[in-house]
Specification:
By secondary structure, the protein is an all-alpha fold. Helix content is about 75%, strand content about 0%. Helix 3 (about 30-45) crosses helix 4 and helix 6 (about 85-100) runs antiparallel to helix 7. The longest helix is centred in the middle third of the chain and has 22 residues, at about 60-80. The radius of gyration is 18 Å and the shape is elongated.
Length: about 130
Amino acid sequence: MNFSNTSFGGVPACHGTGGIAGHYAFGGRTGGSVVIYGTDFLNLGLFFGGAFLEVVKVFPLPILGVLLLFEGLCLIVLIRDLAELPIDLRLAALVAVCAAFLPYGYVVGLVLGTALAHLARRGLTGFARQN
């Protein structure tokens, strides 16, 4: 999905989004940080496969939780910054609820959010879009 999404001007979803937010939150401002991160994991997997698996198993989950908390906060700030108009914020919230609580929520949220954004742009949703 990340390949097709980004091919059409979208942002990476799921792990891709959190990864971008996490890299940005912890100082990675260029694509080089992702390349270094990926290369490190590739080398660790290829040359230290079994030992690396053991290290991953004993990685402290509270540290992972803090990392995910900061990634989530970065994504919340991103939505706040992007949602300049109240309708944009409502659309983002609706898509988030669909993605979080529905089976196949990502697909439902993607289709519903895209359709509502196009309808709102044309003034067909009943919401007054202010510029």
